[in-house]
Amino acid sequence: MKSIGRLVILVKDYDEAIEFYRDKLGFEVFVDINSEPHRFVHLRLPGQPDVGIWLLKASSEHQKSQVGQQTAGQPCAVLYTDNLQEDYRELSERGVIFNSKPKVESNAEYAHFLDLYGNEFVLVELKQ
């Protein structure tokens, strides 16, 4: 193995998920191919071209029941920042819901937030 390419997130609707991840979290769409009956949507953070999120629309009833719960209440990803306080403020202003205020433990400051479906992410600033 060489590297991680995509984290798969089940979604209810491609366009509403794109809007959330792009407009609220700052991801960019770098693949959006609509090849009926499938649509391929890949997002990434600017400056990190090799790792991203693959949005996958839930199709079966079982998949639909797992949207927002695919990690059984545990975080589905950790995102790093150089300034947690600034990102916390900006994301909050954009309507991102945080589970708690930022916390400091040993060499990191972190805060948990939810996407539009309830998937939990951890935003972390590592202290030197």
TrEMBL record:
InterPro entries xrefs: Glyas_Bleomycin-R_OHBP_Dase (IPR029068), Glyas_Fos-R_dOase_dom (IPR004360), VOC_core (IPR037523)
Domain of life: Bacteria
Name of the protein described by the UniProt record: Glyoxalase
Species assigned in the record: Microbulbifer thermotolerans
Top-level taxonomy: Bacteria, Pseudomonadati, Pseudomonadota, Gammaproteobacteria, Cellvibrionales
